[in-house]
Prior knowledge:
The structure holds two protein chains of two kinds. Chain A has no helices and eleven strands.
Amino acid sequence: xxxxxxxxxxxxxxxxxxxxxxxxxxxxxxxxxxxxxxxxxxxxxxxxxxxxxxxxxxxxxxxxxxxxxxxxxxxxxxxxxxxxxxxxxxxxxxxxxxxxxxxxxxxxxxxxxx
Amino acid sequence: xxxxxxxxxxxxxxxxxxxxxxxxxxxxxxxxxxxxxxxxxxxxxxxxxxxxxxxxxxxxxxxxxxxxxxxxxxxxxxxxxxxxxxxxxxxxxxxxxxxxxxxxxxxxxxxxxxx
Lengths: 114, 115
């Protein structure tokens, strides 16, 4: 059973470009979470999605960031017009149910904005 | 809002030493508590979790943690560490239900075990 997949593992973007990060949850998992880890910081929750629904986006920056989890295909975290401060590791996690199960983490995407 | 505090950012121990990593959280309601580990070059893995019941939780690789509700603490322990325990350790909490299921993480403790 494959784990949580994220791609790309490393992404370099110039300021002003768009970044698209993909996450394929574990088989049978319908709950996806995105986290961001800045240097010397712990992971910060960004958004929680179920298929076709955003459940909690309280950790998402108000502008330039969006997330989706379509009926078919991976979850996408999209960052428009990236700035240097967006450079971080972005982790995706999935779980089979909400709240009472552990979250399984992917390897992360390291975004570097030049 | 929840917050998680890990007291030690860097810990250096010799092999066979005993380990205790502190974790305190600030939330008065029902919580789920987790310790995750990130070995060098690998992704986060669950060490152990507490949802309810016995406050002394045993996890993988000889780790255990004790939930002390009155102290809002969930400290991680291991009686005798090994070189392979060198890693980053993260304490995390969530409050189940109501859609607020994202984990709140501490800043992590970087543990180095010297042979």
